Queue: 2 jobs
Job 1
Amino acid sequence: MTHETLHRSGFACLVGRPNVGKSTLTNALVGEKVAIMSARPQTTRHTIRGIVHREDAQLVLVDTPGLHRPRTLLGERLNTLVQDTLSEVDVVAFCLPADQKIGPGDKYIASRLAPLMQGRRPVPVVAVVTKSDLVDRGRLAEHLVAVDQLATSMDLDWSAIVPVSAKGGYQVAELTEVLVAHLPEGPDLYPDGELTDEPEETMIAELVREAALEGVRDELPHSLAVSVEEIVPREGTGDEGSGDVPGRRPLLDVRVTLFVERESQKGIIIGRGGSRLREVGTTAREGIEKLLGARVYLDLHVKVAKDWQRDPKQLQRLGF
Ligand SMILES: Nc1nc2c(ncn2[C@@H]2O[C@H](COP(=O)(O)OP(=O)(O)OP(=O)(O)O)[C@@H](O)[C@H]2O)c(=O)[nH]1
């Protein structure tokens, strides 16, 4: 008779203000780069999942956009998206960076987590003190106390407080243990080896967005949306069916539109004589070819969609 060990599976969600290290932590937990990382806030607009495969568990991580006080319709939509995701997960990891004092943004998030923690099917929340490597032991201890007090002051209870450093790998394995412990018993939800189930279109849009913002983030903060129009095999080039020929990869046409809010921003993206857009295309194409395992002809268009962040119709078209 074989001895069956308990197998757990389920979902965890990382929340926190922009730039607190959610994407970096997701990648550290999964052990491979899955989310798009950036030194600037709010680049992760879509829910990106990474999957931690273990013998005894499968932990599916949902990396959300920063939960923040909405100022625009887009902000509201993002918050609704975050709330919907949260009510469906088995455990939430609330990220609070060690190098920053707890502020109104954190309190706002805690207030949004409260109903989940106190609901009929309470969702456990683990407070994760990120970027622990940036402070000394004394300050870390003070921060841990402050994190504890945040819960007490709101009549909440973290199921654990775990300091980590995604950069140094400090306590990352411990955090995995804590998260896994909250998962219900169940079989693998995804096949082994699959790290992300994010639709290809979303990942392509993220790659283009990242490349387009490179070096011009200050001029184009949050005013760029990317829509993948189509991905089709290139016809009439003699390349049809070349995927079957060993050593030859298929050629795909990928059509992408970049939406900006103003004419002046269009100029920034395109650059003099189209030079910048060509660079964006080259950088993004490399990533897309890797992602799709195909040669790619990338067709980029830039359009002005005035105030797209506030327009419900535009938002719907862009997939929000
Ligand atoms: N020193 C240090 N820096 C970190 C650590 N984790 C993340 N960072 C840095 O913090 C910045 C933000 O990290 P991200 O992972 O992009 O943060 P995020 O919370 O996903 O950001 P948004 O997508 O804007 O919500 C980046 O510059 C990271 O390199 C860490 O453990 N230690």
Note: The chain has a mean pLDDT of 81.
Job 2
Amino acid sequence: MLINEFDLTVEPGERVALEAPSGAGKTTLCRLLAGYLSPQAGVVEVDGAPVSCGRRRRGARRVQLIWQHPEEACDPLLRLDATLSEGLPRGECLHDARPSDLMERFGIAGEWLSRFPHELSGGELMRLCVVRALLARPRYLICDEMTAMLDAITQARVWTQLIEVAEREQLGLVVVSHSPELLDRVATRRVSLAR
Ligand SMILES: Nc1ncnc2c1ncn2[C@@H]1O[C@H](COP(=O)(O)OP(=O)(O)OP(=O)(O)O)[C@@H](O)[C@H]1O
């Protein structure tokens, strides 16, 4: 069994670094936490309610996963305004105050929205995926090597903005990174997955 007898509670506003050697199961745990995989035993809960998996996953907005390959997280046939709108709660639109603020924070240019995913750079598309995740008003964000593909300056900007939003909205973050410097900067607590 890859992950056994593991227990983790993430408080609102906490940023927990998940540490383990390569292949130990960090990405697998991230996918479990976000409801993309179903545990063979045990449960993932938000406020006492289980995070749903499978076809109903789409409705599980409270835990959002952002990982390092944004091109795999976007429908290549959808223009980016439709991709971004996937994150919006019913009744909200991209021109509302909160989406506009988030787009500005993360440097999403209006002209990108009529393009397709392959017409943005990897870093631009990743930032768009961060905004899409935040639009869903999650309680928790799971960041799996989220900024690994970015240059150091863009990485620092993204994290500065994300930490500001997370503190303001009291989001709980789980952060996976192979960069100890990044974890030193962003994490408020470290948890080891090592067996
Ligand atoms: N779909 C799958 N089917 C079978 N084995 C898998 C699958 N996905 C991952 N694994 C295996 O599960 C183990 C854990 O993989 P995982 O990607 O969770 O590790 P990780 O800690 O995130 O590694 P890294 O730091 O290298 O990204 C690995 O041995 C991997 O080969």
Note: The chain has six helices and seven strands.
